[in-house]
Design brief:
This protein has 527 residues and is of the alpha+beta class. It contains twelve helices and 26 strands. The chain is globular.
């Protein structure tokens, strides 16, 4: 997947040169743009501890992984000195570690910290919602102070992609409850930045780590403002309170005409979908789910909601993925959708909403308050559903309100990690994860799908994995637990004080990690 740019941005350079224009912090005090940056994002992390999932996909700013991804998303060494040595049977991964690296408190980084991190995450007592991503690990051992050896239960093909996971300090994080201890809000890492302060619900500020093994960053002060409402974020950007912000395409569009600002599009594997709870009497009906999958006009959503900054989504896998099964791709066909409902006994009612056995084809569809992109998708979805006689009642709510309702009500969801089909299909569809946080939101359950997902995860044979994931997609096409809608480009508006910005192909979880500031530690000031 390529990189898309607009405005005066070029994708060739990975180094950023800053001008001399001053900007302001969210409080309005003047700061020197040569060495500081203030950005606005929609989501605030629940924790800053990698033991609970913070920064699991890399670019955490405070921590480093054994490996990191470059602009082309290729893995390269970070705390490791090279890519791992892998045994012929695919069960042993050996990493040699950098020497002379220290945590920000001065403690030396050693193999013991790697062992501590992975052991703690995989401990059943640790409340890490992503621990299942490391199920393949049988054992992790230090071999001396600067070598670590992972032994796997089975030859998990994408294991090396998990080596971007941030490494915590055994000294600073040990001896406390990883779920509630102070390390969650007072992290100590080896990364290019250290935490200066965290005002919950407002902002997070970082300072350059003077002892960073990669060299002290020239951008010394970083402020991350947490602004859930898209329109408010845009207003603060327009007022000069932010140097940059992530915005929905429709909200970002007017900024293209303003002097002093540049709009960037980063391609992503971040999808929007609607979860359809299988336990609900309406969305639990296979015919309802099949009809909705055909009724939705994905191309129109890309055109009208995303302003072309995205592409249709037919499953959790992009259609340019080598794992995507084209024959399982749903085709927009409202007439066929209506026929499916007719044959299943859902007959049009007096108010236009279909009825079966006295029950109206009506359900609640939630989206997160202040998230205009999800709101627009939800409203468009409800409009398409109405055309075939299904009522989706759109409601806004906070995460705290919505999450307990996931097994009962539909949700305008987001997701997408990329890199390997296991990363997206297993957590979305495996029955063992039904109701597990934001995993498998509709409580989807299909024994054949479960078996295929397990084969895809555990097999070391590429052909066998392809067959398994083809099976998953064929079964899902026949009985969809979600309606996938679009893959969205992540759109950023930045002050044109900053030149030669680059982005990566981004996962769903971007915010602080992604965006034009993905390589903030590498930005250089003009000489």
């Amino acid at each position: 997947m390529g990189l898309r740019k607009t405005g005066t941005i070029t994708a060739a350079a990975s180094v950023l040169f800053l001008g001399l224009v001053a900007c302001s912090t969210p409080e309005g005090s003047a700061k020197d743009a040569k060495s500081s940056v203030t950005i606005g994002v929609s989501y605030e992390p629940e924790t800053l501890s990698p033991l609970l999932g913070y920064g699991k996909d890399g670019n955490s700013k405070i921590f480093d992984g054994l490996l990191q991804r470059n602009q082309q998303m290729k893995l390269e060494p970070a705390l490791a000195t090279d890519l791992p040595e892998v045994s012929d049977d695919g069960l042993t991964y050996t990493f040699k570690l950098r020497e002379g690296v220290s945590f920000s408190d001065g403690a030396p980084f050693t193999a013991a910290d790697v062992v501590f991190t992975y052991d703690t995450i995989t401990d059943a007592k640790t409340n890490n919602a992503y621990a299942g991503e490391l199920d393949a690990i049988e054992d992790v051992q230090a071999s001396g102070s600067h070598k670590v050896v992972f032994t796997l239960k089975y030859p998990y093909a994408p294991f090396v992609e998990r080596a971007v996971l941030p490494i915590a300090s055994a000294k600073a994080a040990g001896g406390q409850d990883p779920n509630t201890g102070p390390y969650n809000t007072e992290p100590i890492g080896t990364g290019p930045y250290t935490l200066s302060s965290w005002r919950k619900g407002e902002k997070l500020t970082l300072k350059a780590n003077p002892g960073y093994w990669g060299g002290k960053p020239e951008i010394t002060d970083v402020t991350i403002a947490f602004i859930p409402d898209d329109d408010v974020r845009a207003t603060r950007l327009r007022a000069g309170e932010l140097d940059g912000a992530a915005l929905p395409p429709s909200v970002a569009e007017p900024f293209r005409k303003l002097d002093g600002l540049t709009v960037l599009n980063a391609e992503s594997v971040d999808y929007r979908s609607v979860s359809l709870p299988t336990g609900d009497p309406v969305t639990g009906d296979k015919a309802i789910r099949q009809a909705l999958n055909l009724a939705v006009d994905r191309d129109l959503m890309v055109e009208s909601i995303l302003k072309g900054a995205g592409r249709p989504a037919y499953s959790a896998l992009p259609d340019d993925s080598p794992w995507f099964l084209a024959s399982a791709k749903p085709v927009h066909d409202a007439a066929k959708a209506a026929q499916i409902l007719d044959e299943a006994g859902w007959k049009p009612g007096a108010d236009g909403v279909r009825v079966k056995d006295g029950r109206r084809a009506s359900f609640t569809l939630w989206y997160f308050s202040g998230d205009k992109l999800r709101q627009d998708h939800a409203l468009a979805y409800a409009s398409d559903a109405k055309k075939i006689g299904i009522e989706a009642k759109v409601q806004a709510g906070t995460r705290e309100v919505v999450q307990p309702l996931l097994g009962k009500d539909a949700m305008l969801a987001g997701g997408g990690a990329g890199f390997d089909p296991d990363f997206d299909l297993y957590p979305a569809l495996h029955s063992e994860l039904g109701g597990d946080g934001w995993n498998n939101m509709p409580h989807y359950s299909d024994a054949t799908v479960d078996q295929a997902l397990e084969i895809g995860r555990e097999s070391g044979d590429g052909t066998e994995r392809h067959v398994a994931y083809d099976t998953v997609q064929e079964r899902f096409a026949d009985d969809p637990g979600y309606t996938f809608l679009t893959f969205i480009d992540h759109v950023y508006v930045m002050s044109d004080t900053y030149a030669d910005l680059t982005t990566q192909v981004e996962p769903h979880d971007h915010g602080l990690a992604g965006g034009p500031w993905w390589n903030l530690q590498d930005w250089r000031l003009p000489k």
